[in-house]
Amino acid sequence: MMKILLCSHSPDNRFAGASRIYHLLAASLRERGHEVEVYHGEDAGITGKGLAAKLKTRFAMPRLVSALGRKLQPERFDVVMTSSGTGAPLYRHLRKNGGPRPLMINHIHGLGVYDDLANRSEEWIGNWPTSRMYKLFTGRAQKRWDWEGVVSADLTIVQNLRALDWVERRLPQGREAAYIPAAVHPELLKRSADVDESLRRDDMVVWFASWEARKGAAYVPRAFRKLREARPEMRLVVAGVSVPVDEILDQFDPRDRENVEVPGYIAFDKQVELFSRAAIILFPSVNEGFGLALIEAMAFGPAAVSSNVGFGADFIEDRGNGRIVQNSSIHMARAMIELVENPEERRRMAAKGRMLARSLTMERMTDAYEREMEKRLPA
User: Fold this and answer.
1) What Pfam families does the database record attribute to this sequence (predicted)?
2) Distance between CA atoms of residues 305 and 58, nearest Å
């Protein structure tokens, strides 16, 4: 039995955000007999709205998470895990003190260096502006935190192979890295076991992500225009977004706006309904740490049109279990048109993609975490 401390920097949310993995992993490890304590951003004082909260997020997050870790007496635990370099000050302190200490894990949801590259490249090519605050502080800070997490932890866990490659090429002596893909939420996995295909709408495309540069949002309106030029009946649901509806609709051609629905944030029941009805899930991220929304949609049977990053790069075989396309409106539109005009081929790819997505279970993920922890602890 291991004693494990999990300290997330993200807001406490069992169904979304980075803390979701902490909740699920904690529950799964407890079921196996391990003693797990889990804390979130609020516990570290990363709360509130307005300028003060933003400054905490941009500048003080590692200090706050590490202060929480020290307060919880990390020496009591066999394993301590934090994310995205936010535990680096704590890990440096434990190394400096010497003596018995826990196994220190740095978990990376998505590498800041590739997020920064995605955001800046979208600005450079004229697709999406970035703020002055981001250019001066936010982008640089996350890249630094990621690096400090890698050099201070015993083990860095990543969720995609490109991140693994970046980390492995820079590992200091005595540090290690492991690749552990994320998992479909158990509730969604359970509810995706039996999908009524008679409810599937051949005219529905779903986007389920935040509406921002890194997610490839700039390409979607023009891709949808080209799709509707070939297939005027097609509809697009833009879900999972916090941007005002009018702000999103204004980016679409006036001819297409009546065919675009923007429900914003939707709870699990609505996600199940949406994914079960969609013919296509469009996921054209410029960079992606993993892509949970993509695999959870695929588990319900829509065919995937994804860019070559995250889960798409590591698992999807083009025209085998989905489509992999370039980040361009033309490539996205062509892939969607092909799927719409060849329904049998679309259903074949979707069925294979569904089997793949449903294989990414919490049991599989927990097995990997447990194995990586136990093999580095004294017998």
Assistant:
1) Glyco_transf_4 (PF13439), Glycos_transf_1 (PF00534)
2) 33
Which of these, 76, 73, 62, lies nearest to 153 by C-alpha position?
A: 62
Q: What is the mean pLDDT of residues 60-72?
A: 95
Position 99 confidence tier, pLDDT thresholds 50, 70, 90: confident
The Cα-based distances of 231 to 20, 202, 226, 259, 333 in angstroms read 38, 11, 9, 12, 11
Contacts of 171 (CB under 8 A, 6+ apart): 150, 156, 177
Q: Give 279's strand partners.
A: none
Q: What is the pLDDT of residues 272-289, one digit of tens each?
A: 999 999 999 999 999 999
Instruction: Give one word for 99, left, alpha or beta, with left for phi > 0 and alpha for psi -120 to 50.
Output: left
Compute the distance between CA of residue 320 and CA of residue 316 in angstroms, rounded to an integer. Answer: 8
| Residues found in the chain | 379
Distances (CA, A) of 184 to 97, 106, 137, 208, 275: 39, 22, 33, 15, 13
Q: Is the pTM higher than 0.85? A: yes
Phi and psi of 341, rounded to 5°? -85, -10
Helices (H), the chain: 19-31, 51-55, 61-71, 88-97, 112-124, 132-133, 139-152, 161-168, 186-191, 220-230, 245-249, 268-277, 292-298, 310-315, 329-341, 343-358, 362-374
Residue that the structure tokens 């509730």 belong to: 187
pLDDT given for residue 264 in this prediction: 80
Sign of the Cα torsion 132, 137, 142, 143 reads positive
Q: What is the pLDDT of residue 268?
A: 87
Domain architecture of the chain: domains with CATH = 3-183+361-374 (3.40.50.2000), 186-358 (3.40.50.2000)
Please give the pLDDT value at position 52. 63
For residue 54, give both structure tokens.
């933003």
